């Protein structure tokens, strides 16, 4: 693995997230581990991740496929309380990815719509 790939994998495993305003609804985006030469992202609304319900999301498409990642209600609560949850996606195209879900205090700001 070259230096750039190692940096990409390290960043992905830290679950880089961004807050994006969209139509007045804030969302959080996490990036997966790099597996089979690529990564995926998953976006969850701030309202959903702040709730108490289980969440099932489909990742972004990469290499012509997606994955599914599921969080139980208990895991959503852990994340919402400032904890960290590591989840493995579904296996698609012969591989899976890992997401590390964690919210910092800075990720809970309101960006507004556009």
Q: Please, could you describe this protein's structure?
A:
With 114 residues, this protein is α+β, with helices and mostly antiparallel strands. The protein has one domain (3-105). 20% of the residues lie in helices and 32% in strands. The protein is built from 3 helices and 7 strands. A 3-stranded antiparallel beta sheet has the order 1-2-3. β1 and β2 (25-31) form a beta hairpin. The longest helix is centred in the N-terminal third of the chain and has 11 residues, at 3-13. It is globular, with a radius of gyration of 14 Å. Mean pLDDT is 77; it is low at 6-22 and 105-111.
Strand % is 25-35%
The total number of structural domains is 1
Give the low-confidence spans.
6-22, 105-111
Helix share bin: 10-25%
Number of strands: 7
Largest sheet strand order: 1-2-3
How far the N terminus sits from the C terminus, by CA atoms, comes to: 40 Å
Name the shape in a single word: globular
Largest sheet: 3 strands, antiparallel
